[in-house]
Design a protein that fits this description.
With about 350 residues, the chain is an alpha/beta fold. The chain has a single domain, classed as TIM Barrel (Alpha-Beta Barrel), CATH 3.20.20.80. The chain is about 40% helix and about 15% strand. It has an eight-stranded parallel beta sheet with strand order 3-10-9-8-7-6-5-4. Helix 10 links the parallel strand 9 and strand 10. Helix 3 packs parallel to helix 4. The longest helix is centred in the first third of the chain and has 23 residues. The C terminus is likely disordered. Bound molecules: magnesium ion (MG).
Length: about 350
């Protein structure tokens, strides 16, 4: 009997040691889900199960904007959101046409993107490469040159997600302008990278997913559509549009949202955000919050003047930052309901 006890004790100790080892080396998001793909209205991992990712979006990468100058586009920041928020995704919002953007300063902006993508790969995170423009259909050749470069360098990594048109304006027609643009850009990406996810923006600052659902892209693989919301402005009427799109079989990704108003400012609408979180959980939607920035406005997650070293505590976070950190931190574990309004 003594011998059996000793064996059992040894087994128990060994099991505990293995358990703690597993906990200290929790699988990364990319190790867990692998290459993402679209199946029906779901984005699934290599295991065939829905993959619902969460993490922040960086602010516009443009030089000289609000003092940011893309300074948060670095490995320390990416590592911080992985380790402290358990973020499974981060979005790089590469400004294009405005002052200090990719068109004016291609090398500088592309280097910012590379720093974030390289860091995301090192951390086992997904990274959304966002062509952050409102009128990209007017210069598809710039988007094609940009995404060909991204696909050549990073198309072999399952981490990378292409977002080819951030927010087309309300006056940019889905069928006449956005869809033809998407067809051109997707074809060029697919000539280099046959499989990584491509996310397509929709009319009216990526709200009219119902228009895309009425006339979706044909003969494309692993393509999903962008839905953006700001809870202070966008409520049930926008969820109804999303529902129409999902019911018609479109896969959606919320590559940008805020708990504030659509202008990026104002207070946190936690009650409406709780409804959105419940909706996103129900359909396994991936989401990124706008924005990991210290600009003086309600949506910013960092207090003004926060150094870009990623050595941050909760004292560096704004109300929005702390609220959204907790949403990301618990995204895999908690089913959000209206009861979460106090977060
Ligand atoms: Mg690939």
């Amino acid at each position: 009997m003594k011998f059996i006890h000793r064996v059992l004790k040894t087994v128990a100790v060994a099991s505990l040691a293995l358990l703690s080892l597993a906990q200290s080396h929790a699988a990364t998001a990319v190790a867990t889900h692998g290459a993402l793909s679209v199946k029906g209205n779901q984005i699934i991992g290599a295991d065939g199960k829905p993959a619902s990712l969460a993490g922040p979006s960086l602010f516009w990468s443009n030089s000289g904007w609000e003092g940011n100058e893309g300074r948060y586009y670095n490995a320390d920041v990416v590592s911080y959101v992985q380790k402290n928020w358990n973020a499974s995704v981060i979005r790089a919002a590469i400004g294009v046409d405005k002052r200090g953007g990719y068109q004016a300063e291609p090398e500088v902006n592309f280097a910012r993107l590379e720093r974030v993508v390289d860091a995301a790969i090192a951390e086992g995170m997904y990274v959304i490469v966002d062509f952050h423009a409102h009128d990209a259909h007017q210069y598809p050749e710039v988007a094609i040159e940009f995404f060909e470069k991204v696909a050549r360098k990073y198309g072999k990594y399952p981490n990378v997600i292409y977002e080819i048109y951030n927010e087309p304006l309300n006056t940019v027609d889905w069928s006449k302008q956005i869809k033809p643009y998407a067809e051109k850009v997707i074809a060029k990406i697919r000539a280099i990278d046959p499989d990584n996810l491509i996310i397509v923006g929709t009319q009216t600052w990526s709200q009219d997913v119902d228009k895309a659902a009425a006339n979706p892209l044909k003969n494309v693989r692993n393509v999903a559509y962008t839905l953006h919301f700001y809870a202070g402005t966008h409520k049930q009427a926008l969820r109804d549009k999303a529902q129409i799109a999902l019911d018609k079989g479109l896969a959606l990704m919320v590559t940008e949202w805020g708990a504030v108003n659509a202008n990026g400012d104002g207070g946190l609408d936690k009650a409406e955000t709780a409804l959105w979180l419940e909706f996103m959980h129900k359909y396994n939607l991936t989401h990124c919050q706008w924005a990991l920035s210290d600009k003086k406005e309600g949506a910013s997650q960092l207090k003004n003047g926060t150094a870009p070293d990623g050595k941050w505590t909760d004292a560096n976070l704004t109300d929005a930052g702390l609220y959204e950190k907790n949403i990301v931190l618990h995204w895999d574990k908690v089913k959000y309901t209206g009861a979460d309004t106090k977060r």
